[in-house]
């Protein structure tokens, strides 16, 4: 077989569901009869129906890993279930060559009353392997899953992490031609996830992988192609994974603040970044100065508030705090207003969208009086797409010159 052989081909794939069970059952009976003459309703919606997937087209070759991303309800799991043969499409065609391994639901494919060892043989047989082939891989599977002590215990007594380790071990060690993975790696601990990444790197040259996840660093780590689904339609399909992930994140940008605590001492009047905006999103080039202007109104007498500004990345992980001078006096006007500017020179956050959380303490002894999450979003622009939180300025010197 060719190294660049197409293993998965999806043509005009569509799937619809009915919101009402009784109506859906009636449509199913109708379709049983019309299918003999060619289903005239396969491309049209009837009352109470909606498209879970509509007109999906793509190819996946050996050695390619396709990231499948989208918001909840976008159709990702439906597409994976069709590819795995669990449900039938209403229209279109799916062609898959070779053996298919799938990790699409926690514990899926396991018989809970059978032991881990017995389930290994069951899963291997489903994939089309002989008992002898499974015997040769058995020790590798058990060692990879790290459950040798519990391998002869019924799977129904396994923890969620143990089920994931066993399922991935079977799928990876037996090395199917096509491997489907749906979010289950999020259950494993970091050590096991890193081992899974290493295994995926090893088997990818001989396999086609479809990887579904909401964890964008994971997607960027292992995928070389990307599909972004939105309400069942393909919004993006290219090899530029970073650009697709940016489109995914743009769907979360909003302009409202989440006030978690307000003791009535202060009111935030305004907060903005002194830079140009695009689509109501402040934009900075990498290396620009970050100038943040805040205006408050004091509603109660307060001696010296201590203000904390925290920057979060797209995954809502805290990446930095802005250091404020604790001894600076804030001049309050007669009507209780005060305004100040915070400047950070030569911003070196990597390309992406960030949000700002604001916490105000009554004094330096940490008595919080106001806390607002995602009070402001901003974007850092750069030509390079990287997933490390910082892109640090550096100078290269050739010592032989």
UniProtKB/TrEMBL annotation:
Species lineage = Bacteria, Pseudomonadati, Bacteroidota, Flavobacteriia, Flavobacteriales
> One Pfam family this chain carries?
ABC_tran
GO cellular component terms, A-Z: membrane
Q: What is this protein called?
A: ABC transporter
Claim: Nucleotidyltransferase is one of the keywords in the record: no
In terms of superkingdom, the source organism counts as Bacteria
Organism listed in the record: Christiangramia flava JLT2011
Similarity remark: Belongs to the ABC transporter superfamily.
- Which keywords does this Swiss-Prot/TrEMBL entry list? ATP-binding, Nucleotide-binding, Transport
**Gene Ontology molecular function, alphabetical:** ABC-type transporter activity; ATP binding; ATP hydrolysis activity
């Amino acid at each position: 077989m060719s190294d660049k052989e197409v293993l998965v081909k999806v043509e005009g794939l569509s799937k619809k569901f009915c919101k009402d069970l009784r109506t859906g059952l009636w449509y199913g009976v109708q379709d049983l009869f019309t299918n003999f003459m060619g289903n005239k309703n396969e491309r049209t919606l009837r009352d109470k129906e909606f498209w879970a997937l509509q007109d999906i087209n793509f190819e996946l070759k050996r050695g390619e890993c396709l990231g499948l991303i989208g918001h909840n309800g976008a159709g990702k799991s439906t597409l994976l279930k069709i590819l795995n043969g669990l449900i039938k499409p209403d229209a279109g065609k799916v062609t898959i060559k070779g053996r298919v391994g799938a990790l699409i639901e926690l514990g899926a494919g396991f018989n809970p009353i059978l032991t881990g060892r017995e389930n290994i043989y069951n899963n291997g047989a489903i994939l089309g392997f002989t008992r002898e082939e499974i015997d040769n891989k058995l020790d590798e599977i058990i060692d990879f899953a790290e459950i040798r002590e519990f391998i002869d215990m019924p799977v129904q007594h396994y923890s969620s992490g143990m089920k994931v380790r066993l399922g991935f071990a079977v799928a990876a060690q037996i090395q199917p031609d096509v491997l489907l993975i749906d979010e289950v790696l999020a259950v494993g601990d970091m050590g096991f996830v890193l081992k899974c990444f290493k295994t995926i790197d090893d088997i990818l040259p001989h396999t086609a992988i479809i990887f579904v996840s909401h964890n964008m660093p994971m997607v960027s780590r292992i995928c070389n192609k990307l599909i972004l689904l939105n309400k069942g339609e393909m919004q993006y399909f290219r090899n530029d994974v970073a650009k697709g992930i940016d489109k995914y994140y743009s769907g979360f940008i909003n302009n409202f603040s989440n006030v978690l605590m307000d003791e009535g001492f202060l009111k935030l009047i305004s907060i903005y970044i002194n830079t140009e905006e695009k689509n109501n999103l402040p934009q900075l080039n990498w290396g620009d100065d970050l100038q943040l202007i805040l205006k408050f109104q004091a509603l109660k007498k307060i001696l010296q508030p201590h203000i904390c500004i925290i920057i979060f990345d797209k995954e809502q992980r805290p990446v930095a705090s802005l250091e404020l001078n604790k001894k600076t006096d804030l001049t309050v006007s007669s009507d209780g207003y005060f305004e100040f500017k915070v400047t950070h020179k030569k911003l070196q956050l990597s390309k992406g969208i960030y949000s700002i959380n604001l916490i105000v303490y009554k004094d330096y002894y940490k008595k919080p009086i106001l806390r607002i999450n995602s009070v402001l979003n901003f974007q850092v622009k750069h030509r390079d797409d990287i997933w490390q939180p910082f892109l640090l300025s550096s100078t290269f010197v050739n010592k032989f010159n």
